[in-house]
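Reproducibility note. Readers wishing to regenerate the assembly model reported in the main text can use the exact inputs given here. Chain order matters: entities are listed in the order in which they were concatenated for prediction.
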Amino acid sequence: EAGVTQFPSHSVIEKGQTVTLRCDPISGHDNLYWYRRVMGKEIKFLLHFVKESKQDESGMPNNRFLAERTGGTYSTLKVQPAELEDSGVYFCASSRQIGTDTQYFGPGTRLTVL
Amino acid sequence: GESVGLHLPTLSVQEGDNSIINCAYSNSASDYFIWYKQESGKGPQFIIDIRSNMDKRQGQRVTVLLNKTVKHLSLQIAATQPGDSAVYFCAESSPNTGNQFYFGTGTSLTVIP
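Running the prediction on these inputs yields the following C-alpha cells for the assembly.
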C-alpha cells in the first residue's frame, strides 16, 4: 500500500508570491488533514477534509490559505500571497475513519518564504 | 485552549539503555493518544497508540503509559538503539474538539553509541 505523498518536498519563494502544495492520501482514506510545523514549535492542525468536504478548518491561519480537495482524492493547499511567517513544514495526513483512527503522515513540504 | 507539551525538549541516552519520553496534556476529555517518531527528512511515523480506557500498552520494545489523573503520557523505549534517534511527538484527540489531533512540541532523542 502506497503511503501519503506530498509535492514538492521543498519550496523556496519570495514574499508576495504564490505557492501550491499537493497531497495524495492513501487510497481509500476519506479523511485528509493538513498540519504545519513552524521551526521548533508543535505540529499544528490546519484543516480536515472528509472526502471533498471541509469538516473542520478552524486551524487555518487566515484567508491567504486556501485548501481544496476536488473529487475527494488529492488535496492542494495554496498560499497567496505568501508571507515570511508562513515558512515551515506542511504535513498532510490521511486516515480511513474519523476520530480515533491512526493518521498516516506524508513526508511534508518544507516551505521557505524569503 | 489545548495544551500538549513535553517535559524535556532533548534527551540523550546510551545505546542499550532504556529511554523515557514524557508528555503532558490539558484536556481531561482526551480519549485517544498517539506517539509519533519523526526522523530527519521524513514525516511523523506512527509508533503506538492508547485509548483512555487503558493505562498501559506494549508494543515491540515500546510501552506507552497513560495516567489520566495527572494527564500525563509517557513513551518507554527498551534497549535504545541508534536507529531510535529521532524527534518524538505525542498527540491527543478528544470528541469535544472535533477529534482533531493536538501535538506536543517534540522531544529530540539522541542515542549515543
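We highlight two features of this model. The domain at 4-94+104-112 of chain B is CATH 2.60.40.10 (Immunoglobulin-like). The two ends of chain B are 40 Å apart (CA to CA).
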